[in-house]
Design brief:
There is one protein chain. The chain is mainly α and 86 residues long. It has 4 helices and no strands. Helix 1 crosses helix 2. It is globular.
């Protein structure tokens, strides 16, 4: 992703934060995972992961990218931590 100039008045859209649009988030997940796996990332698996809204499971992570060295249990726990009140 190429950095764009940021204008305060644009409400952060110039920064390209993944939380600002489903498309941006999906594209970042796909790009990140395709750098780690051979082949294509399943669009349906990515859609399920993003649709889980923090209720991500180990199986969802593996369906997107089952990468040696990644710990799906830690990924699922980190997602759950975002949902807990601080």
């Amino acid at each position: 992703m190429v950095p764009r100039p940021y204008e305060k008045s644009d409400g952060f859209s110039g920064v390209g934060l993944p939380a600002l649009s489903d498309d941006a988030c999906r594209d970042l997940v796909v790009q990140f995972c395709e750098n780690e796996v051979d082949g294509e990332v399943s669009p349906a698996a990515v859609a399920a992961l993003l649709g889980a809204d923090g209720r991500i499971t180990e199986a969802m992570i593996r369906a997107v990218a089952d990468v040696p060295g990644w710990d799906p249990a830690k990924g699922a726990a980190a997602a759950a931590a975002f949902r807990r009140p601080q």
